[in-house]
Amino acid sequence: METDSTTPELAMALSLATARLRARLRSEQAEVTTGQNMSQLSVLGRISEAGTTTASELAKAEHVRQQSIAETVAGLKRQGLVYSRPDPSDGRKALLSLTESGADLVRSIVEHRGAWLARALDAHVTAAERAVLAQATEIMFRLADCPPLREAPPPERETP
User: pTM, whole model, 2 decimals?
Assistant: First the structure.
């Protein structure tokens, strides 16, 4: 696969823009969260989307080790936001779900953050730009969910 000469610059700009928007969203939701870190909030969102899931599925979706997910889930359980029950089809696994408090927290974050973002889009982004963002959103989801890519071998050097 050939790399366009602008790809590294685009990758850096996309990374920086994503980080800045994520930080802004985090600050906007700060008044409705109760001390959860971004990993915990991301896991809450994943469980909310799935309804019920396993730690193994979460680790794969979050691109982290199972040990990291175990620590994150343990913290959410201590906060009363997540509970587990044995998987009826495989007793070795535990199924994770949101408690009512966890579901309420996710709803309030989504509503609060979504309201801010909708106002910002209306005030600062044209209709044409919103159409571009809709396409970019689909692409970003695809990038976030793509499998790990093997590193390309280093380019061959010419010998003098």
Answer: 0.70
The per-residue b/e assignment along 18-47, b for 16 or more CB within 10 angstroms, e otherwise, is eeeeeeebeebbeeebeebeebbbbbbebb
Residues 6+ apart with CB under 8 A from 53: 46, 47, 95, 96
Tokens matching residue 92: 């070795």
Return all residues near 98 (Cβ < 8 A) that are at least 6 apart: 44, 47, 48, 81, 82, 106
Rg (CA), the chain: 20
102, two tokens: 């966890």
Record the tokens describing residue 52, joined without a space: 């019920």
Helices (H), the chain: 7-29, 38-50, 55-62, 66-78, 100-124, 127-144
Smallest CA-to-CA distance from 58 within 28, 93, 32 is with 93
Mean pLDDT by 10 residues, the chain (160 residues): 73 90 81 80 93 94 92 96 93 93 92 89 95 94 82 53
